[in-house]
What we know:
This protein is an alpha/beta fold and 129 residues long.
Amino acid sequence: MSRVPALIVMHADLAEALLRAAATLYGPVEGVEVMSNQGLSRAQLEAEIASRVAGWNGGGLVLTDLWGGSCHTCGASAARGREVIVISGLNLPILLDYLHNRDTSDSTELAERLLRKGQDSIRLQRAPS
Length: 129
């Protein structure tokens, strides 16, 4: 099975910061692209995402920060007609799970796994009474 490629698209410098944080826990990270929407119009952002995923054969993941934001909507538009899945709400547990499992699953299986990981990673802990 081949590695599932990923492109992280987020607001400001969040994608780079999240990847740096993952590297402190995972080790050196290769093969993950990051980009910001900063300074790009919607058309430019969509074109840039489409350009970066154009060479993906067999699918891949566009990981974004916010459902319905420009990174998500432009990612979804750029993914149309391709075997690309957009996952919004990326956090550190999801990114680490992606890194650990990107060589063992196809993009659809991995996307489903990451969805569950994201849901499971949000917890509520209250102070004891």
